[in-house]
Amino acid sequence: MKLDNIYQEEKKSNFAKVSEIIITMASRPSGFIGLSILVFHVILAFISPYIAPYDFKAINPTLMLQAPSAEYWFGTDDLGRDVFTRTILGGRTALTITFFGSLIALLWGGLLGIFCGLVGGKTDDIVMRIVDAFLSIPWILAMLLIVSLLGTSTEVLIPALGFFYGKGIVRVARAATHDVIAKDFIVSARARGHSNFSIIWNEIIPNVRDAILVEGAMRWSWMLLGFSSLSFLGFGVSPPTPDWGLMISNARGLMSFAYWSVIAPIVGLSSLIIGINLTADAFAKALGIDRSTKAPV
Amino acid sequence: MLFLIIKRILLGLITLFIVSLITFVGTEILPGDACTTYLERQAFGEQLEACYRRLGLNVPAYERYVSWAVNAIQGDFGYSLSGEMPIKEVLGPRIKNSLVLASAAIFIGIPIALILGIVTALWRDKLPDVAISTVTIFAMTIPEFISATLLILIIAIWLEWLPGIVIVPTDVSFLELLPNIILPVIAIAMIMTAHMARMVRSSVIQVMASEYVQMAILKGVPYWKMVFKHVLPNALLPAINVVALTIAWLLGGVVVTEVVFNYPGLGRLVIESISNRDLPTVQALAIILASIYVSINLLADLMTLMLNPRLKTLQIRK
Question: pTM score, two decimals?
């Protein structure tokens, strides 16, 4: 009977595994809330260009700073643009850039970490010193410098964010590799004469994948925070692109008499970040990984 | 023990050395240099040569690195791009202001974080835990510029209790600064406290589940005596490192908070010098911020080493 169970476990398709994880995540209240918010934002990002009631860049001086009304649900901003339109469009750029940025971070951080954990010795020492050095430079300083010198195009932002948020993943992947490296199956793979590449691909990655994915999910929410901070400071996407960070920074000066134009993007951005965060947390718990004792690095 | 301490200090110094190399090489390989930015369209021929000579950019890169590093160790970072003020003098009051902000946030944040963390851990999954944990999740996930903007909107604009924006000269005395820093301190302390409280919570929960605590319970040690004598000393030790990392991590967040409140600290200098493409100042800032990060971590490492009861007994046995 027991053997039978194990056999069935093996036979599960990837789809079944993923849906099982999602069901486990949604069975906690916090995970359910997080997933719903995230799904809502992703769907909104896809359909918002089709449902937006106005043109996001249509400037209309006669409609400056209108309070919310039946016609303009969230009011208008200082250039007479519809705040509702800009708010529902405001997550698209941020979501796209940070999603691909996180993928890059996952890839290079994960692979370098596994490599360092596997080879150890001098190479490991040197790489980890360099990673430590990069960690000790505040990310915002480095990002601002790169963006101010190379421009704020997507081709600059995605790799730059991917690089700076990947260095923390190096440490996590390395630590996870250290945990499995001494296990018998690795020793026996070595004894069978497998190459380093084969050991990484067949033995290590399946065992450290969960830890790295969880870290990547967490980093996604931090990257979103970082990207929005850049936009807020005027170093992210350029106007008139609708972007929450940019909208908040523009509307901030006028919020004493037009608070609606700052509240709407605040709700949008906060809910998305909280959604990703709760989802990442639930994902970690569903996979049985405890990351509550870790500091944000 | 002494060997361990020396090793940690050496590792920190090596990290700083690599940081200095990275910032130097980084500003070197990125397009444009101090002279082309300074002269803008007139950056060619005679004038460019003269500028290179004036700023000493006409010698090979490695020579410039060595002389820059030697001076930097002595606290001399050269002149800022505008060329009028030594960077050292620009930095002085800024560091002081940021230090005031950070230490106020730390002194308020740490006790609150300890209390919240311990309360949530001891009443795990009960009402106090659920309520406080929900608030901390909000406080630590919402970006600094959002919480700061909301604080200004609610407390400064709607309630009119405190000034929303700091409008003081850079070298202002402490007492004049005080009413201005309350909101920025709250904004920074909120995120920091939330992070630390969650770490203290999980650390306490871990210790509560350990065998020696179970043993103490079975022996009939009174609950609060057990908490204060057995649980807290062991739970707070690993928290030191994490607290240090959180503080160091906040260096980035402080930049944004200082900009929102127009606070004349290091963070706003980062934005100003990058907007002006003032690379010498950016280099100096990178080194200083990295040194702060490395020394906070070093301090935390050393504290853990000193306070670790296992290492103490190791010495006695020797």
Answer: 0.82
